[in-house]
């Protein structure tokens, strides 16, 4: 059976390549497209199963390839003879088959047949998008990275506080990256006293879209702010949320897995999926960054606040999670104090959450405004500014659930 090809190719060798494809046994060119928009329209209209794209096709990026894939179209790249930078770019975009424009028909047949072979299989590329990955042959594989999403309902329950300090505790043990994906109000840069100009997550997703995000690129935009702790700051303005699209965020997180042992993500509160409200399923989604983080994460921390309203929101939040792809939640009850729920607050809260929501395995964090105010004022973490506080110790214990505990001596010294 002949398979239909749609093509958006460089004019200087388009005709020869199209003629060569027509000479193949298995493929025929159904549509020659002038630009990417034309190609996406042809894909949406079901004109082809395979797209051939030039390395220099304007605006070709990961979201565009994702869109092709969503229409069931597999993409293969095409480069002019000797165009190595073009080939590198296409491979960094994730294309596994890249043809040279001067191939003979039988070679094109073989190359496009191999598209079917790779389709659905695990990608043979490393996190930097280059074939072969970044590991030396024979090196022992490192422990796989763990992505921990920190999420919680509206009402500022302490997602950022938990994310920042959990990351800081983990960084004392293993290399860690803290990522701000809150598209409603990023705040990690401010909490840690980082300059506004830090390139952050917008630069990382831009590089991901353009196929240029590799380990070195990610390391550049996520500088180390203290030993072992890298930070990818959030959007400088919430209005720029369209820059954090699902495929790019997923790519940033996948790349981060190759850079550090722990990735801690500060998520926005909202998890409704606008896709369900819109007919345009490819439009950017406000909550895409958070939904992607929840989906990609290996571990999930849900933060609620210890007063009647906060606890009710926490229960609803955990129920809402049932309809969102995400790992099992570990529940953290923050700002625990007797004044909001009565004496012996931990016992009362545990009883209530156990009885009404079936939640066990809770972590309690005490109310401690002076320590947090001092930490934020100094642009630092509790491990540095209030190492002996009960709040810091509770956060260190939370980190013990993910990484080997710190030796007591080191913990005290910090
Ligand atoms: N255990 C605590 N004790 C005292 N204050 C706390 C505690 N946890 C958080 N706070 C304070 O509550 C405020 C909100 O916390 P944080 O920014 O972590 O919440 P958030 O859930 O990230 O909110 P947002 O919706 O703005 O992202 C901050 O001023 C923080 O210092
Ligand atoms: Mg926050």
Total count of helical runs of at least 4 residues? 18
Structural class: alpha/beta
CATH topology value of the largest domain = Rossmann fold
| Rg over C-alpha atoms, rounded to the nearest angstrom | 24 Å
Q: What general form does the structure show?
A: elongated
**The CATH class of the largest domain:** Alpha Beta
Overall pLDDT level: 89
Bound molecules: adenosine-5'-triphosphate, magnesium ion
**Span between N and C termini?**
67 Å
What would CATH call the homologous superfamily of the largest domain?
P-loop containing nucleotide triphosphate hydrolases
**In percent, how helical is the residue content?**
40-55%
Largest sheet: 8 strands, mixed
> How much strand?
15-25%
Query: How many domain regions?
Result: 2
Q: What oligomeric state do these chains adopt?
A: single chain
Q: Which architecture of the largest domain would the CATH scheme give at its second level? A: 3-Layer(aba) Sandwich
Spatial arrangement of strands, main beta sheet: 8-9-7-10-6-11-12-13
Uncertain parts = 120-140
Number of strands: 13
């Amino acid at each position: 059976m002949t398979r239909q090809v749609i093509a958006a190719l460089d004019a200087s060798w388009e005709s020869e390549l199209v003629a060569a494809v027509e000479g193949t046994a298995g493929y025929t060119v159904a549509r020659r497209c002038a630009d990417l928009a034309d190609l996406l329209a042809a894909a949406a209209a079901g004109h082809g199963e395979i797209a051939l794209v030039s390395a220099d096709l304007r605006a070709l990026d990961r979201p565009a390839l994702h869109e092709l894939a969503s229409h069931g179209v597999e993409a293969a790249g095409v480069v002019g003879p000797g165009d190595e930078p073009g080939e590198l770019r296409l491979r960094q975009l994730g294309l596994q088959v890249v043809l040279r424009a001067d191939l003979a028909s039988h070679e094109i047949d073989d190359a496009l047949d191999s598209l079917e072979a790779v389709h659905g299989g695990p990608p043979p590329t490393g996190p930097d998008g280059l074939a072969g990955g970044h590991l030396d042959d024979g090196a022992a594989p490192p422990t796989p990275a763990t992505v921990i999403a920190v999420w919680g309902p509206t009402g500022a329950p302490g997602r950022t506080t938990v994310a920042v300090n959990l990351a800081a505790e983990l960084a004392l043990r293993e290399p860690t990256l803290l990522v701000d994906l809150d598209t409603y109000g990023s705040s990690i840069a401010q909490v840690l006293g980082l300059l506004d100009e830090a390139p952050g997550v917008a630069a990382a997703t831009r590089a991901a879209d353009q196929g240029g995000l590799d380990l070195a690129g990610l390391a550049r935009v996520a500088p180390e702010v203290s030993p072992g702790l890298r930070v990818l700051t959030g959007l400088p303005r919430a209005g720029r949320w369209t820059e954090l699209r699902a495929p790019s965020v997923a790519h940033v997180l996948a790349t981060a897995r190759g850079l550090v042992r722990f990735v801690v993500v500060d998520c926005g509160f909202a998890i409704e999926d606008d896709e369900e409200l819109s007919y345009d399923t490819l439009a950017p989604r406000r909550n895409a960054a958070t939904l992607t983080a929840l989906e990609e994460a290996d571990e999930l921390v849900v933060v609620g606040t210890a007063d009647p309203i906060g606890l009710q929101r926490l229960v609803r939040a955990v129920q809402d999670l049932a309809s969102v792809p995400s790992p099992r939640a570990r529940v953290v009850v923050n700002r625990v104090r007797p004044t909001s729920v009565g004496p012996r607050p931990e016992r009362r809260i545990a009883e209530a959450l156990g009885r009404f929501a079936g939640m066990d395995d809770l972590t309690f964090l005490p109310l401690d405004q002076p320590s947090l105010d001092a930490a934020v004022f100094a642009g630092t973490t509790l491990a540095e500014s209030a190492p002996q506080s009960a709040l810091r110790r509770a956060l260190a214990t939370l980190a013990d659930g993910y990484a080997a505990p710190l030796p007591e001596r080191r913990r005290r010294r910090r």
